[in-house]
Amino acid sequence: MIVVSNTSPIINLAAIGKLEILQKLYEKIFIPQAVHYEISIAGKGEPGALEIEKLEWIEVKEVTNHKLVKALQMELDEGEAEAITLAIGLKAELLLLDERRGRKVASNLGLKFIGLLGVLIEAKRKGIIPSVKSIMDALMTKAGFWISHQLYTHVLKVTGE
């Protein structure tokens, strides 16, 4: 399965020490250079910066359709624009993306995407993690990841917690 990730899922899982969930679910993750830059250069010393340099299952790929990146940057930041463009270029089966505007654009382009909470639901269903609640709580308290009360309750209901 070809999976491309934007910045948010990587840094948030790294912040709580749960980045391995992505590897267990998808084996390999591709990120564009802009996402690599956001995490390892702009985010030096922050969660995910060291991990993406060391972990062989996270691979940096260069986008080739620079016209599409420029067009997407009219609505999105560079990381999102490159992640969407890379997903199209690699014919990715899945794009990991949390930001609402990016998801709207990805949907309009016919890409299948999932956010971090969707990743957690999938991980619970496959027996990779025993509890979604504890990870959501850690994301909110340690990573500053915002989850509305309604969505939090929905995820717990869907996962039977």
How is this structure best described in words?
The protein has a single domain (3-117), classed as 3-Layer(aba) Sandwich (Rossmann fold). It has a three-stranded parallel β-sheet. Strands 2-3 form a two-stranded parallel sheet. The protein is mostly helical. Helix 7 (100-108) links the parallel strand 4 and strand 5. It has helices at residues 7-15, 20-26, 33-41, 49-54, 66-72, 78-90, 100-108, 116-125, 132-142, 149-159, and strands at 3-5, 29-32, 58-61, 94-96, 113-114.
How would the blueprint of this fold be written?
Elements: E1 3-5, H1 7-15, H2 20-26, E2 29-32, H3 33-41, H4 49-54, E3 58-61, H5 66-72, H6 78-90, E4 94-96, H7 100-108, E5 113-114, H8 116-125, H9 132-142, H10 149-159
Parallel strand pairs: 1-4, 2-3, 4-5
Helix pairs in contact: 2-8, 3-6, 5-6
Question: In a nutshell, what does this entry contain?
Answer:
The chain has 161 residues and is mainly alpha-helical. It is built from 10 helices and 5 strands; from the N terminus they run βααβααβααβαβααα.
Number of helical stretches of at least 4 residues: 10
Order of helices and strands: EHHEHHEHHEHEHHH
Strand order in space, largest sheet: 1-4-5
Helix/strand-derived category reads mainly alpha
Number of domains: 1
Oligomer: single chain
What portion of residues belong to β-strands? Answer: 5-15%
Number of DSSP-assigned strands: 5
Task: Determine the N-to-C terminus distance.
Answer: 29 Å
**Main β-sheet description:** 3 strands, parallel
Q: Which regions contain 5 or more consecutive residues with pLDDT less than 50? A: none
How would you name the CATH homologous superfamily? 5'-nuclease
Q: Label the overall shape.
A: globular
What fold name stands as the CATH topology?
Rossmann fold
User: Under the CATH scheme, which class?
Assistant: Alpha Beta
